[in-house]
From TrEMBL:
Coarse class of the protein's main subcellular location: cytoplasm
Name listed for the protein in its UniProt record: Selenoprotein S
InterPro entries: Selenoprotein_S
Keyword Transmembrane helix among UniProt keywords: yes
Bias (Basic and acidic residues): 84-126, 137-163
Coiled-coil ranges (or none): none
GO biological process, one term: endoplasmic reticulum unfolded protein response
Family membership noted in the UniProt record: Belongs to the selenoprotein S family.
Membrane topology: Single-pass membrane protein
Cellular localisation: Cytoplasm; Endoplasmic reticulum membrane
Organism, scientific name: Strongylocentrotus purpuratus (Purple sea urchin)
Keywords: Cytoplasm, Endoplasmic reticulum, Membrane, Selenocysteine, Transmembrane, Transmembrane helix
Ranges that cross the membrane: 35-53
Length: 186
């Protein structure tokens, strides 16, 4: 690096135009000092306008691309796609209708069975055999016996036990001593 500058020789005069350089620097610094805020706001405004224009330009390009894509679509492809979607909707609707009808049929059968039971109960009541049928409870008991499960009545819990776990034992009679009263004195 020093070899490059060795070939040059400084003249006795040195820099011939130092006043021009210093005048230019002083003029530039004076301009920035005078108009610095305007320059700063101008640059910020340009950046904002540039970003705003960029988003608008991107939106415009996107819209043109969509329009060109719409123009390039084949009408037959669109029609086929829509028909396929319609067939799929019809299949789903048919499946839903079949399930609905099956559910309605089951509900109708349940209502018919319940109506027959109520008629039988009313006829039994007219004959003096009792109003509501006890056959359901009897059938359930028979099924439980057939499975080997017997119903065991649980003993009823007493309303008041003689035992309190906080007492420590079966009524041992222990009571903690009363707290001493604290008098404020005075």
């Amino acid at each position: 690096m020093s070899g490059m500058f060795e070939d040059r020789e400084l003249t006795e005069e040195g820099n011939t135009t130092p006043e021009g350089v210093s005048y230019g620097l002083s003029t530039a610094s004076e301009f920035v000092a005078t108009y610095g805020w305007y320059i700063l706001f101008g640059v910020i405004g340009l950046v904002y306008i540039n970003s705003w224009l960029d988003t608008r330009l991107q939106g415009w390009k996107k819209q043109r691309k969509q329009e060109s894509d719409l123009n390039s679509y084949n009408a037959n492809e669109v029609l086929q796609r829509q028909e396929a979607m319609e067939r799929a909707r019809q299949r789903l609707q048919a499946k839903y209708d079949a399930e609905t009808e099956e559910y309605a049929q089951k509900q109708k059968e349940k209502e018919e069975e319940k109506r027959k039971e109520e008629i039988e109960d009313w006829e039994r009541h007219q004959k003096g055999l009792g109003y509501k049928s006890k056959t359901k409870a009897a059938k359930e008991a028979e099924q439980a016996e057939a499975r080997g499960v017997t119903r065991q009545d649980k003993p009823k819990k007493k309303l008041r036990d003689d035992y309190n776990p906080l007492w420590g034992g079966q009524g041992s009679g222990f009571r903690p001593s009363a707290r001493p009263s604290r008098s404020g004195g005075g």
